[in-house]
Write a structure and sequence with these properties.
Blueprint: H1 8-11, H2 19-38, H3 51-58, H4 70-84, H5 103-115, H6 126-143, E1 150-154, H7 157-173, H8 176-180, E2 187-192, H9 198-205, E3 213-216, H10 226-239, E4 242-249, H11 261-271, E5 274-279, H12 293-296, E6 303-306, H13 308-311, E7 319-323, H14 327-333, H15 366-400, E8 405-411, E9 414-419, H16 431-448, E10 454-458, E11 461-467, H17 475-496, H18 498-504
Parallel strand pairs: 2-3, 2-4, 4-5, 5-6
Antiparallel strand pairs: 1-7, 6-7, 8-9, 9-11, 10-11
Helix pairs in contact: 2-4, 5-15, 6-15, 7-14, 15-17, 16-17, 17-18
The structure holds pyridoxal-5'-phosphate.
């Protein structure tokens, strides 16, 4: 029987686009994206639709049997996203730590996915691999970490911390941990109570269990108590446990607190412990000329996690692990399967990123980061990050100067505060009520569509939390939040305490 190989035109593959079709759909999409970015500040930050309302927009249809033309589909997808999204690029979005995304990053993603390099192996991605290596070196240089470090890009802060955790586990317990697992080894991790939940996920995923974490208390400024750390390690050693890793935080997710990294570094080097710094939020602030010395000491760590999709303003997703000893990543992740026969090069071994991290096939997330670093330069980043820090400070000061607001904490680019009605000022017994009031106030601010904040728990105080990692935020934007919080705070208080409101009038 004769089989005929179809030629490209005759084949008519359902996903292929002609040059003209791609050009027309692309131009239209780029025009719409430019309009969207130009007007982002005029939209509500979010519509606050319920999950049911949003699900209803899509309807319950099954998978389409027949395809549709690309252009109208893209148009419709743009309509959906522009209407039913929360816009973290809005100038008054200050929740969590999600930055405004650099527009060049969006164009970089289009370029990267069109060429579609696979950065698992050098042969599959020659220039892309070299760009990622240069990006990693530049990130190290920007934050003052040795540029001889090894590293790679991953999906975000969690993954960047996981990669470092695994490198520490391998480095401190030997190669056998890769074949035998951790069985029998009572490995112990030390970190402060303010550490992000990635550390629980890591202890769980990588076989230690969350009981292997020693939660070190914090001082009044929410920084790790190093004397308590020293005691915990000594107690565990006396018990026959195996301390291997201390995690310091360079900018906590709640309030931007920075652990005393220089002291922790000295302790780890004395005790032969792996010192990792979670700089997912604050790491890039080490680039500021007036960065706190405690933060700059991330340069002393065995590994650092930073998050380009936070303070480098890269579009999601991009995290980055840096490891002082580049061999440590290879020791942790390298295998040589028979199905990878890359070209040997006598002068220089090419870097195959699948040997340096958990992923096999890898996309070109480095391109958006690399182009952002080149578009802004060090000077541009120092200005944007410094402005974010000054705006958060200004918000804190404005809250402090507003009679019905109580300013609570300020760290890096995070300000926390709460609404306190006049008659409850200084009334310690009112804290439970104030927590309820401020938690409803947070919802009310979000529902207004004009600003978007999250919360932090400062001791037992529910605080409104604004984190400025947003190059679109202006001083006017920041100035608008205290009056909004007061107006809506009065409204909520009047609803929750009608009798007190009646007594005031
Ligand atoms: C954001 C953050 C993480 C998690 O990073 P993702 O990019 O969300 O995975 C971890 N640690 C700190 C300190 C963070 O701020």
């Amino acid at each position: 029987m004769e089989t005929k190989r179809p030629d490209a035109a005759a084949r008519d593959a359902a996903l292929e686009m002609s040059g003209d079709e791609f050009r027309a759909a692309g131009h239209k999409l780029v025009d719409r994206l430019a309009d969207f970015l130009g007007g982002i500040g005029e939209r509500p930050v979010t519509r606050n639709d319920s999950p049911l309302e949003v699900r209803a927009v899509l309807g319950g249809d099954g998978m389409p049997e027949r395809g549709s033309p690309a252009g109208p589909l893209l148009d419709e997808a743009a309509d959906l996203l522009f209407t039913h999204s929360l816009f973290n690029g809005h100038p008054r979005f200050w929740a969590y730590i999600t930055s405004s995304a650099a527009p060049i990053g969006a164009l970089a993603d289009l370029l990267a996915s069109t060429v579609n390099a696979n950065l698992g192996g050098w042969d599959l991605a020659p220039i892309a691999t070299e760009i990622e290596l240069q990006t990693v070196r530049w990130i190290a240089e920007l934050i003052g970490y040795p540029t001889t470090a090894g590293g790679l890009l991953v999906s975000g802060g969690n993954m960047a911390n996981f990669v470092a955790f695994l490198a520490a586990r391998r480095a401190k317990s030997g190669d056998a941990v890769r074949t035998e697992g951790i069985c029998g080894r009572r490995l112990r991790v030390y970190t402060s109570e303010e550490t992000h939940t990635w550390v629980q996920k890591a202890a769980d995923l990588f076989g230690l269990g969350t009981d292997a974490i020693r939660w070190i208390p914090v001082d009044a400024r929410l920084r790790m108590d190093v004397a308590a750390l020293e005691r915990a390690v000594a107690e565990d050693r006396a018990r026959g446990d195996q301390p291997f890793l201390v995690v310091g935080t360079g900018g906590s997710v709640g309030t931007g607190a920075i652990d005393p990294l220089p002291e922790i570094a000295r302790f780890c080097s004395r005790e032969d412990l792996w010192f990792h710094v979670d700089g997912a939020y604050g790491g890039f602030a080490a680039a500021l000329p007036d960065a706190p010395e405690d933060l700059k000491a991330l340069s002393l760590a065995d590994s650092v996690a930073v998050d380009p999709h936070k303070w480098l303003y890269a579009p999601l997703e991009a995290g980055c692990t840096l490891v002082r000893d580049p061999q440590a990543l290879r020791d942790t992740f390298s295998y040589h399967p028979p199905y990878y026969q890359y070209s040997a090069n006598k002068e220089e071994e090419p870097v195959n990123f699948h040997e340096l991290g958990p992923q096999n096939s890898r996309g070109f997330r480095a391109l958006k980061v690399w182009l952002g670093l080149r578009q802004a330069g060090r000077e541009g980043y120092v200005r944007m990050i410094g402005d974010d820090v000054r705006l958060a400070r200004e918000l804190y000061d404005r809250a402090a100067a507003t009679p019905e607001l109580e300013a609570l904490t300020y760290g890096l680019s995070i300000a926390t505060f709460r609404y306190v009605p006049h008659d409850l000022k200084g009334d310690a017994s009112a804290n439970g009520y104030l927590n309820d009031l401020n938690s409803e106030l947070m919802r009310r601010i979000r529902a207004s569509g004009t600003a978007y904040v999250s919360n932090a728990l400062v001791g037992d105080v529910f605080a409104l939390r604004a984190c400025v990692v947003n190059f679109r935020t202006t001083r006017e934007d920041v100035a608008s939040l205290p009056p909004l919080a007061v107006a809506l705070g009065r409204e909520v208080d009047a609803e929750l305490r009608p009798s007190a409101a009646a007594g005031r009038t």
